[in-house]
Amino acid sequence: AQSVAQPEDQVNVAEGNPLTVKCTYSVSGNPYLFWYVQYPNRGLQFLLKYITGDNLVKGSYGFEAEFNKSQTSFHLKKPSALVSDSALYFCAVRDAFKAAGNKLTFGGGTRVLVKP
Amino acid sequence: DGGITQSPKYLFRKEGQNVTLSCEQNLNHDAMYWYRQDPGQGLRLIYYSQIVNDFQKGDIAEGYSVSREKKESFPLTVTSAQKNPTAFYLCASSGNRGGATDTQYFGPGTRLTVL
Fewer CB within 10 A of the terminal residue: chain B, N end or C end? Predict the structure, then answer.
């Protein structure tokens, strides 16, 4: 079975400081990993994904994520946070070999609050 | 949210009623999905369809039904058998028959409240 954990319900950071949102995963095969952001009462917006290749993935709005196979992690990062980055962030995983119907499994979400 | 529309944005249902949530996409995607989001929880998969006229149950299909008669449309019916339907419902789509590397793109959601 595939699963993903986001250990922090909320992350608080001052504007201009680095932002990190943690994600760990569990799959039996190779992972495909995704990050999404959700603003209040809106759908999810895709930020970035890791399929294969370079462990550092760059995405939208200045976000990046680093795939670490030994630690089974895929943490989302932004060097300098903006107030407008305040939102709910979801990590998702798919097992490359076993995911029937392209099923994505989502973490519980991490709320990011960036204070001015 | 571009390319995927959901309607209505807000929906109120009386107990015992069936209601249908609309999802339309103009991205020419093969695969479409329905998720349910509850406060403080991640998304849970209700149904998915990888091709027209075919669909599969997800993790929480009980009390829901779908159809996929057209490529661009994947309506979800919340039946009276769904015991706790109040939630935020999200539709998504992806290309290439939902291949493993495909990105799922989401609509803006429908918030369903049972009165």
Answer: C
Q: B61-110 pLDDT, tens per residue?
A: 999 999 999 999 999 999 988 889 999 999 999 986 657 788 999 999 99
Lookup: tokens for A94? 């798919």
Quick check: A94 and B105 CB within 8 A?
no
Please answer yes or no on whether A102 and B94 come within 8 Å at the CB atom.
Answer: yes
**CA-based torsion, B40, B44, B46, B51: positive or negative:** positive
- A93 DSSP β-pair partners: A33, A105
Cβ pair B109:A34 closer than 8 A: no
Phi, psi (deg, nearest 5) at residue B63: 90, 5
Per-residue pLDDT of chain A (116 residues; tens, 9 = 90+): 789 999 999 999 999 999 999 999 998 888 999 999 999 888 999 999 999 889 999 999 999 999 999 999 999 999 999 999 999 999 999 887 765 666 889 999 999 999 99
A63 close to B (CB below 8 A): no
Interface size A-B, in CB pairs within 8 Å, comes to 67
Cβ within 8 Å of A, B 73-102: 88, 90, 92, 94, 98-102
Q: What is the distance of C-alpha A41 from the center of its chain?
A: 19
**Pairing mode, strands A87-95 and A105-106:** antiparallel
Q: Which residue has the tokens 């994505």?
A: A104
* Cα distance between residue B51 and residue B98, in whole Å: 9
* Residue showing tokens 């490529």: B71
